[in-house]
Sequence to fold (276 residues):
Amino acid sequence: MSEQVFSIGKMAELTGLSTQTLRYYSNLGLLKPEYVDENTGYRYYTFNQLHYIDRIKYLRSLGIPLEEIKEALRCQSPDRLISALEKQRDSFRREISELESQAREVDWYIGYFRHAVNARRFPFFCLRYFPERYALGIPFDSGEDTSTRETHLTHIRNSGTGRSLKYIRQYGYTVDFEGLCQGKFLPRQLYMFIKGLPPAGGEEIASNLLTFPAGNYLCYMDHFRSPSWNPQILREKMREVPEAELVLANEYEDNLAKYSECPYQLEILLNRDAPL
Fold:
């Protein structure tokens, strides 16, 4: 052997790979030693293979699977490697998009708790514009227990096509506004918001899909389900606005123990116009 060669131990030392990894690459057919001593079975690598290993390590640092690397190097053409790199780039972009979506959801959840705490300290009416929203909901029969309805909705969410939907952790009700003005919390529907319009398919999901129109909503947070809640403030405020077309009561958890005592944000649809 006239050219410079390295034992497997020396090659491991030079490249930072373990001898086990080099043996694995050899068994995989990705990087075989240049020479194997017939008498001792010792493996030897050449100087030129240092560059080969560097490329493998670099591609692995980019997340390219070993089989993809093996196939690209076997073809000895940049075209096959470009294809593998493009595939990995697209995978990274999908991951980034998913992470950004999760980050936005975390931001929403932070705002959810902050809004509950701030509204509890400084209760006030405000006008907010909401885009079109979607929810999975079920009718609320007169006199039916809340826990029974929540149990049924939980079952729908976690069975069939309901499992494929992305939910926003917030229960809500459509409520009878006249009853509310009299101090009575009379729910018509129980729902949980979902992220975006679900794809077609699934009869049970379609029959329970609720769409809340985009528009300007008058919002006010209070403990509407508490027996001690006084509707006087709400009655006085509603004298200034026309009859309510749609009234939502969305749960906001201001504690992590007694969910039944959480406040609700009343969202009264005033019009379906563009943002004010």
Summary: Residues 78-121 form the longest helix (44 residues). The domain at 5-76 is CATH 1.10.1660.10 (Multidrug-efflux Transporter Regulator; Chain: A; Domain 2). The CA atoms of residues 160 and 216 lie 35 Å apart. The chain has nine helices and eleven strands.
